[in-house]
Specification:
Chain lengths: ~160, ~290
């Protein structure tokens, strides 16, 4: 997008950004939760149970995000972005499945590979279109001085 | 003679940073330069970092355009000023889990990382609260946590539970619970190896941004004034600052805030050809000065 944003032919893309942004945030938050569980599991297994509630919520969020992403109308210019959105959500679902693997226990290799894939696809969504930043810089010392950014500005 | 050589290495900066963010309270006090830096220690067979900085590839442009962070240089260039490569780093103490402190784990492939357990536990708990509570988990990058998982799988991530002496010889870590973050950590280097020796340094992470947090602005009436950014409390920030200061006998300059631009005038320093400061805190036996 450039200085012509808002022109009539940009409207489908803007509608895509507005619809896709919440789904991307959902995937990002769920990814943090599953990764947090994985980190507890691998550094202090006895404490991983602390994150089981978050893990269940993350699995629900991943399923919801995947459905939301599938339902978004995708203009041609957003096709590449949408591909990574779908791939991120799918990888996150695989990560949740690996983390929740009850009978055989957690498959750590599958879990780490799926987390890596979800993270990489999510990073691609941040890079391909504006308005998809993954970090809330407002709680970082470098950025506390910047004016607040509102959801309506992104859309 | 010192056991560890110690340098504070600037890797980026915000040239005009509002002072009101660095100290809780004073509004309309103009701006200061806010350097971004990490600490390098060499000695006892180890090459150690306190914090990793961030990776410009991921969101450097965003930080530059939106927030005025300038002159970023990666660890390969920055560490070279002291003759060190990222591959040489053996240990990293992560003071807290914000992107600008643990955002470059992947650039140190041979390092073992140390993080407070409560930083992770409470952060995971806060993530489950929902988006309306996102202030509590801001500053975290999902990619950083995934990289931490990868390091943990390789046995390179160690969670520390509270205060611990001699994590490495002469190096202690301390939990400052519920302050800037849930499990912020500061690092003490007893550089003569004794418990209460005079050559002791405290590396404060983001528990303080400037010496002024330890002294206040009125020299006739010193006071501890906390930073403005906390998920914990100002109360806890004040008492952790007091503890750091007490541990070095009240000598303010021995509590090192890496964001303090005046480090370059408090200690021997050099401006590199990239416009970055190298500040030399201590030199171990046999180590040559990097600022002379």
């Amino acid at each position: 997008m450039d200085g012509t944003v808002g022109a009539p032919d940009e409207q489908p893309l803007l509608r895509y950004v507005a619809a896709a942004r919440p789904a991307q945030q959902l995937v990002g938050e769920a990814l943090k939760q599953v990764a947090g569980f994985a980190l507890l599991l691998m550094t202090s297994p006895g404490r991983a149970s602390l994150a089981e509630g978050a893990l269940t919520a993350a699995a629900d969020a991943a399923a919801r995000a995947a459905e939301d992403i599938r339902a978004i109308p995708v203009p041609g210019r957003a096709a590449h972005h949408h591909h990574h959105m779908r791939a991120a959500a799918e990888a996150l679902r695989r990560a949740c499945a690996a983390a929740l693997g009850r009978r055989g226990g957690v498959n750590r290799d599958d879990l780490v590979h799926a987390l890596r894939a979800a993270s990489d696809h999510l990073r691609a969504t941040e890079r391909l279109l504006p308005g998809f930043e993954l970090i809330d810089f407002g709680q970082a010392c470098c950025a506390a001085h910047a004016p607040p950014r509102f959801v309506c500005e992104v859309a | 003679m010192a056991d560890y050589s110690i340098w504070v290495l600037e890797y980026a900066a915000v040239e005009k940073f509002p002072f009101s963010v660095m100290m809780y309270g004073p509004q309309h006090q103009g701006t200061r330069k806010l350097p971004y830096a990490y600490v390098l220690l060499k000695g006892k067979g180890e090459t150690i970092l306190i914090d990793t900085g961030y990776d410009h590839v991921a969101f450097g442009k965003q930080l530059a355009d939106a927030y005025g962070v300038s002159n970023y240089h990666g660890p390969r260039e920055v560490l070279a000023e002291c003759g060190v490569r990222p591959e040489d780093i053996t240990r990293v103490f992560i003071t807290h889990a914000h992107f600008d402190h643990m955002g470059a784990i992947h650039l140190f492939p041979n390092a073992k990382f140390y993080l407070q357990k409560s930083e992770l536990d409470k952060w995971v708990w806060a993530l489950a609260l929902g988006p309306e509570y996102r202030f509590l988990t801001g500053g975290g990058d999902p990619a950083d946590i995934v990289r931490a998982v990868e390091a943990a799988k390789e046995g390179r991530m160690v969670l520390i539970d509270g205060d611990q002496e001699n994590v490495l010889p002469g190096i202690d870590v301390h939990l400052a619970a519920d302050t800037h973050t849930y499990g912020s950590m500061y690092v003490t280097v007893r550089n003569d190896g004794t418990r209460n020796g005079e050559d002791k340094w405290v590396f404060a992470g983001d528990l303080i941004y400037t010496y002024d947090n330890l002294t206040g602005l009125d020299p006739d009436a010193p006071q501890i004034v906390p930073i403005g950014l906390a998920v914990g409390s100002q109360h806890n920030l004040i008492f952790s600052s007091a503890a750091m200061l007490k541990s070095v006998g009240g000598e303010v300059r021995r509590v090192i805030p890496v964001h303090e631009d005046r480090l370059r005038t408090t200690f021997p320093s050099r401006l590199t050809d990239k416009g970055l400061q190298v500040v030399e805190i201590a030199l171990a036996s046999g180590e040559k000065s990097r600022v002379g």
